[in-house]
Every structure is written in structure tokens, then in C-alpha cells.
Cytochrome P450
Amino acid sequence: MGFVAELSAAVVLIGIVYWWFKNVNTVRNKLRWCVKKPGVPILGNALEFTGGSTEHLKTIGRCIEYSKEKKFTYIEFVYRPIILISNYKFLEFVLSSNSLKLIDKSDDYTYLVPWLGTGLLTSGGGKWKTRRRILTPAFHFQILEQFVEVFESNGNIMVNRLKEEVDKNSFDIYPYITLCTLDIICETAMGVSINAQDKKESEYVRSVKEMCRIIVERSFSPIEMFDTLFPLSRNYKIQNQAIKVLHNNTYSVIRQRRKELEESKKQLVEIEDDVGTKKRMAFLDLLLKATVDNKPLSNEDIREEVDTFMFEGHDTTASAISFAIYLLANHPEEQKKAYEELNLIFADDKNRPTGHRYLQEMKYLENVIKETLRLYPSVPFYARMVNEDIEYEDGKVIPKDTSLVIFAYGVNRDKDNFKDPDSFIPSRFDGIDGKSPYSYLPFSAGPRNCIGQKFAMLEMKSTISKIIRNYELLPSIPEHKIVLAAETVLKSANGIKIRIKKR
Ligand code: HEM
């Protein structure tokens, strides 16, 4: 390279570095109102997050505590500005409908895109608004009512499978629950049964598990987190294979259902006239009927949404049900109250099908689930991206490209929001113990909250009530202390070990 070319390259490089640092300084100046936790040069605070999934909750908690009573702290990951928040007033600003500018997700969600595309969870802006409008009717109570029998039949299979664990000193109930919730979401989202509970692990189930694992590993791997370096890893090949299996499966179900619906237009009219009594509709059928600007959704549009339900709708409920079972096994008084309520509802026959009406009557069990989700929110933190400078209050600016991390786990356990915050007290939900809707955030809040929360509540009530009607839950021998791990959802790294006795 000649001297002039070298000089030009050096000037360009210096220009880029100068521009970069000017930007970094502008962002830091704008964020002077926020307490900044000091980090190391270049990497910022990234090294504090290298402890693995069992350390993330503690690390985020420590970072937020650094700002003392403010409860929001500014950190940097390689100059990327991030505000970690557990202050419910700030969260109200971020999540409420007044902040429609703050509906886009942060970069961390891009690892989901190869599988889910840009469906409801990962999309932003106009696409998200259109999809949310189309999908909202799919969660109408008349539609959800039809799914109760899917919860029922799959819950029965699980209760039967649990027989082999009766009277053992200790066993891990999580694998039973996760297969049950996987069967439920498959049948409700796609209208087909994969019988995950009956079969040896299928290729589809294995692929779902592989994808959930890879998504987490990528978020914290200094190599795999970069799209340019990821193809060099072993996970890249595994991911491609898993995605092929998952997409082929969803596409083949979509094509099959589209054909069936087209061939039986007459039957479809019957379905429209009498939702749920003639033929159960899956979420997929509703998507096949949906239109945008009078045009039907393409197979790819539908696949994105069906896969999103598959991802978002099984691990979340599996983890919540498992934690509820763990808490009940270790709190006999609370279990007794839940069981007595069920005895009243099912006085004549404990195996009577759990119809929608009976699920509505399970008030105490609902408190148990709410309290479980307060202590162990399935999605313990989630994030938004700021796409343009936005004013918070009194001229405080949140600069473009800042990630806002909503620390639901921290808000839910804040002693200023809940008395005795680390204790399991379901009855606190009889009255309103939290100060504001933004101080209890297991399903997020505002326009981008969880679309599946009513579905989830029905499924959790159905499944948990089935377990406790059939088995007494007892603490494991020896005692089992769970180790929390914040993976794609909050889990116990060492399983959910309990004991069961036939009732
Ligand atoms: C205990 C169970 C569940 C919990 C705790 C939960 C929690 C959440 C949370 C916190 C969000 C917001 C995430 C974010 O902002 O990144 C969310 C979004 C979402 N959830 Fe759930 N969820 C549960 C069950 C379900 C189920 C069963 C479904 C589907 C059948 C579902 C579908 C979705 C979808 C599609 C979104 C994205 C909504 C949007 O961005 O408009 N969830 N969920």
C-alpha cells in the first residue's frame, strides 16, 4: 500500500474512532441523571455477567442496588448503554400505553429470529401492531373455553405417569410437567397431538429443547453472540438441523390444515356459527382465517406465530407449575387450603372433568399461582430498545439505542411493594398488597403484555388441581433446595424434587 493510501486509511480509522467516542460521550452526558455503575475499559460491566445463568439474577440485583433507593442503574456492555430497572414508577413509564414509542424489543431477542422469524414476540413497530390486532381475538374466553378439554386429557396422562413415583423419597417432577405442557401447546396451537408424554423423545421435541438451549448459550457466549462468529461454532450446525425439523413440521401442519379447511368450506361455516361445539379450533385455524388488507396470511406469516406460541407457551407454564408444586410440597398449610377448596368443588367426584366453570371457582389456587409467579416469575427480566431520544421526566433524556431491562424478579420481591417479600403467602392476593399494577409484573404490563396470560392461568389451574386432587405433595428426603437459573425462562438448575403419596 502506498503512503497516501495508508494515510487515508489511518485518517478514516481515526475519524471512525473519534465519531464513536463522541457518540459514547453524548450518550453518557445525556444519561448523567442516572447512577452509573463503574466498569472496566472497553468491556464496561460485561465481565460482571460471566457467572452463568445461576448468577444473573444476583448480578442484576446487585447492579440495581448500587443506585440505592433510585432502583435503576446505568451499565455498559462494550459501550452499549443499558438501564436496569426495578423502580415501578420508571417501569410504568416504560411499559404503559403512554409510551408507545417503547414497544420495540432489544437486540437480545435476535437469537430467537432464526426459529420464530418476526412473530408477535420478536417483531416491532407496524408489524407488531397488525399481528397483535389479528391475534387478540384468538385469546377470547370463548376460544379459551374449548381448550379446557385439552388441558384435561393431557393432565390425566401426566397424573397416570406420576403413579410410578408414588412413595419414593425423592424425584424430579419437572420432566413430567414440561412434556405435559408441550403436548398442550402443540394441540392448542396446531391442532395436532405429538404425544410427547407417551413416546420416547421425538425429533420434534428434541429440536425444541436444542433451540431453547442454544438461544441461552448464545446470549452469554462471547463468541456465539456475534452473528459473524456463530457459524464457526458446533451449535450453529445443531441449530440449522433443529430449525429444519421445526419449520418442516409447522409448515406441513399448516399445509394440511389449509387443505382441510378449503375442502370443507361447509364445515368451516358451521365452526363460525357455533364456536367450540362442532369442532375445536386451534390457534392455527384462526390464523388461517385471518386477513390483513383483505389478504390471507401467508404460510410463513402463520408459521412465525405458531412457532412463537410453541416457544412462549410451554416452558413458561412448565416452570410456573413446577415452582407452584414445589412451594405447595414445602408449605403443608397452604396445600391443605388449596386441597380443601378443591374438595368443595369436586365433592361428588374428584375425577370429574375440570370444566371451565370449576376453574373459575378455584380462587385460592389462583392466589397460589399468583404468589408463585411473584416469587418465581417465569420470565424474570425482559427488555425494550429505545429507537429515538425520549424524555422520561423533567427533561431527563433516555438516548436512542439504550436498552431498558425490566427486572420483574426484583420488582416482585421489593420490600417496599410487598410485606415479607421472600415468603410464600398466597392470601396476600386477597387484598391488594402491591402498590401499583407495575409493582407486580410476571406477565409484563401495558400494550405489550403477555397475550397468553388467561390461557396460561386456566392451564396452570387445571394441571395443578389435577395433581393435588390425586396426590399429597411432600418435601423431598433429603430436603431439596432449588438453585435458580435464569435461562430463556426461570428454572431450577437442580430440578424440582418432591415426594408424592396417593390420596
Ligand atoms: C406462566 C406463563 C407465562 C408467563 C409468566 C408469561 C410471561 C410473559 C411475559 C413477561 C411477556 C413479555 C415478554 C417481553 O416483553 O419480552 C410475554 C409475552 C408473550 N407471551 Fe407469555 N407468558 C406465559 C405464558 C404464555 C402462553 C401460554 C402463551 C401462548 C399461548 C404466551 C404467549 C406470549 C406471546 C405471544 C407474547 C408476546 C406478546 C407481544 O409482544 O405482543 N405466553 N409473556
